[in-house]
Amino acid sequence: MTQQINSFLIVFLSYLLALAIFADAHNYKTSEYKISPCCKASGSPGWTNEMHHATAENSFPELDVTTAQHCCQKCVENLDCIQWVFGPGGCKTFFERIPFPLVSICSSSLGQPLIPDGDSGVIRCKDDGCYKSCETHEPHE
Length: 141
Known about the structure:
Blueprint: H1 2-26, E1 51-52, E2 59-62, H2 68-77, E3 83-87, E4 90-94, E5 110-111, E6 119-122
């Protein structure tokens, strides 16, 4: 009889542990303190819903991103990322693909993204990005 009770308790406690882990995983979200000032909310310095004209060759899809804030943060965390856009098709971050391009992304015209209902922002352009191009850790105020 005690063997059956021990087996029952082991199985029961294992299920409780699995349930607790599962529930905790579904409540996970990026902590507020880990979000850059560039990406706090729409209207932040890196989330202006404008971007420089860029080609698809300069973009990279971020498949694990589900929100505009996370997309912006992905760009901030990658020191080579210039700008980002998030819309119904997901998140794309933009980089200079050619080491010495004839026209850089930052020198292209600034405007609304071509993605309808999309969010976007410039992170690393000298004049209008959240971070100055030569300073990777100090956001513009």
